[in-house]
Amino acid sequence: MEILIYFAVILIVPLWANMRVKNTYKKYSKVATTANMTGAEVARQILHENGIYDVTVRPGKGFLSDHYNPAKKEIVLSPDNFHGMSVAGAAVAAHEVGHAIQDAEGYAFLRFRSSLAPMANLGSNLSIFLIIGGAILGASGLYLAGIIFFAVAVLFQFVTLPVEFNASSRAMDQMVSIGLIRNEEEPHAKKVLNAAALTYVAAALIALLELLRFILMFAGMNGDD
């Protein structure tokens, strides 16, 4: 029964978080900003207000595919956010600029996350094979190696949290100080950013639960020896 509850949690929580961000985004993507600026214009204005001129803003593909690429120094906005003039689009664009500002200022958590990224990618791809192989072969050393690799991926998830929350905080500060949104629009923008943050929190919690499950299984494997 416990295992069924566990798998229900790791399936339902991410789905709930994703549904909430999509529903919140869709709601406020229909609310126009009084500034009448596209997401691309919002991003460029915040960049220039902060003295950042080496970051480009370009349209991407797909729904909510927005991201900042520090290697290429570019902000990629999904088509609706790049061209649209909604509160949701402005909030998302400002959030991605928040990452560009972090990069320009050498924000410690962003630098740490970037340094972890190669090992985290390797860990997320390799760990499950090591864990399954260790379990099948009864090789505790192999299983432990998988746990260590997976732990790096989990650490990456948790380091991502302050990076994302800080970018959202910067986004709100910038939009308000520059006058890109008015007082009545602030709660709407915050709801969009908070809903998006839930997806990162959910991912981190699920990853931690998985890590704890693997550790308990490893302890059980050694206890049987």
Automatic annotation (TrEMBL):
Family matches, as Pfam families: Zn_peptidase_2
Annotated keywords: Hydrolase, Membrane, Protease, Transmembrane, Transmembrane helix
Keyword Hydrolase in annotation: yes
Keyword Metal-binding: no
Biological processes annotated in GO: proteolysis
Lineage top rank: taxon: Bacteria
TM annotation in the entry: 6-21, 119-137, 143-165, 192-216
GO molecular-function terms, A-Z: peptidase activity
This protein's name: Zn-dependent protease
